[in-house]
Specification:
mainly beta; 2 helices; 183 residues; seven-stranded antiparallel β-sheet; three-stranded antiparallel β-sheet
Amino acid sequence: MKNYKLLSLIFLAFVVFTACSDDDTPDPVNEEEVITTLTVTLDPVGGGTSIELKSQDLDGDGPNDPVVTVSGPLANGVTYNGSIKLLNETESPAEDITLEVEAEDDEHQFFYTIGGGLDVTTTYTNFDGNSNPLGTEFDLTAGAASSGTLTFTLRHEPTKPNTGLGDAGGETDIAVTFDVTVQ
């Protein structure tokens, strides 16, 4: 009888200890980047005046709206080399989030959405290790005189390859819409 009780206690101890295995430990959460500032620089191929599109939201989800600026119109018929820079300006000095996005290129992709009759086209010029678009660098060609919107959306863990924002999935890290004119 004593052996039966001893075996029962050993079995109970085994069940308790195996129920608390390492398999029950939750996976660490990959915290999203804090992005306060998105700056798009458009440098005309062959020289000329650069255009800057910028959104700065220093209070994050606070009560103040982001300050969104466009330094000037695009010139029709001109191709621009575009680059995107992301900052977390809640830290001092500001953290360059672009470096993290590019280091984790297989987990990120920028999408460019053209709306409202704006006559521009975009082409990706940088890619992840699997030759899928990343989009922190791109070409933009301004067509005929027009105006409309240009939205830059950064997705975290999109499906790659994809045909665009509509089937990319993932989570939006930042999306900013600029009012743009081509003259």
